[in-house]
Amino acid sequence: MSAPKKVVLAYSGGLDTSIILKWLQTEYGCEVVTFTADLGQGEELDPARQKAELLGIKPENIFIEDLREEFVRDFVFPMFRANAVYEGLYLLGTSIARPLISQRLIEIAEATGADAVAHGATGKGNDQVRFELSAYALNPEIKVIAPWREWDLTSRTKLLEFAEAHQIPIAKDKRGEAPFSVDANLLHTSSEGKVLEDPAVEAPEYVYQRTDHPENAPDSPEYIEIGFEKGDAVSINGEAMSPATILTQLNEYGRKHGIGRLDFVENRFVGMKSRGIYETPGGDILLEAHRGIEQITLDSGAGHLKDSIMPRYAELIYNGFWFSPEREMLQALIDKSQEHVTGTVRLKLYKGSARTVGRWSPNSLYSEAHVTFEEDAGAYDQTDAAGFIQLNALRLKLIAQRNKRVSGK
């Protein structure tokens, strides 16, 4: 790969990406553009601008953007229409943020005339795959620089030495090994490494950042109502809100009641297993509510088909294929299924759990007349079931007769 002339760097303002910024300048002698996204990680972003300026980045080459609404509206909500859960448990909080970051990296590269993008993902993880697959899907000609796969700064000591040699500010807590690494956005926090690497050892309580301990949650349950239109949450307790506002509010409910904790050993796309501690307080509530409204608005055939494709859809997102044709095809099917998923769900929040306790919809398929144990006024003829059973039993009878002949019994 020829040396890049201008690189757009996904820049957090932390030590690692600050070292990457300086390394790009010294290694390639190139101009660097920084992009910092506010995805609801809960950090002040002005220090990222200040540090980028300190490291010689021109003000016009510093991009800091609030993408919370776009993140929830165009990425989180479409994923939740599918009830996407990876390996039965993980709500894909890190995975779903990467395509949006990559999309903006490519757009900024085009706007600034950059010929390369760079990220700070390591060579052991999934994020390198997600960033780069997305980048190439959007611009097949773009150069992608992954310093962790190129440089010789292979230890914390070498990183700190590089930082000191180039006058990169080092926070005091960065002079030793961090106890664990954290990724955060409006949907989740993810904590991995160090004190969490032994999956046999319970994670210490200080790892949890978004949720109070369920045992310390209120002793009385709290009830909330979430309104949906075409599969997307649009209100809480009757108050219309924007997508990001809804998720922010649900996060607060979840934090208070200790909802959304997950201790999970997953299979990374690159081949190894990894133990992580995830917190998705609002996401767990939203998933429960969405399934609640689907229970009365989705036909069984549509719902079962949707559930059958969900693992494949979730795997595509986890593995970095958000911009693939197969993900878009599945999304079209999922979105078609949501045309009548409108209504309200009532949930009970209590000590780590969110449970649907009521649901109603103008599009409901639930018929009390058909399921009642009282007189149904002729809505359902129970004698019809006899023929239904006999037809479905026919092949089972034939198999049983065949087996008796073969065995001679």
From TrEMBL:
Catalytic reactions of this protein: L-citrulline + L-aspartate + ATP = 2-(N(omega)-L-arginino)succinate + AMP + diphosphate + H(+)
Keywords from the named record: Amino-acid biosynthesis, Arginine biosynthesis, ATP-binding, Cytoplasm, Ligase, Nucleotide-binding
Molecular function (Gene Ontology), one example: ATP binding
Subunit and partners: Homotetramer.
Uppermost EC category: ligase
CDD domains: ASS (cd01999)
The enzyme's E.C. designation: 6.3.4.5
Binding site for ATP: 10-18, 37, 120
Protein name in the entry: Argininosuccinate synthase
Pathway: Amino-acid biosynthesis; L-arginine biosynthesis; L-arginine from L-ornithine and carbamoyl phosphate: step 2/3
Record carries keyword Protein biosynthesis: no
Major localization class: cytoplasm
Organism annotation: Cognatishimia maritima
Amino acids binding L-aspartate: 122, 126-127
GO BP annotations listed: argininosuccinate metabolic process; L-arginine biosynthetic process; urea cycle
Cross-referenced PROSITE patterns: ARGININOSUCCIN_SYN_1, ARGININOSUCCIN_SYN_2
Keyword Disulfide bond assigned: no
Every Arginosuccinate synthase C-terminal domain range: 180-398
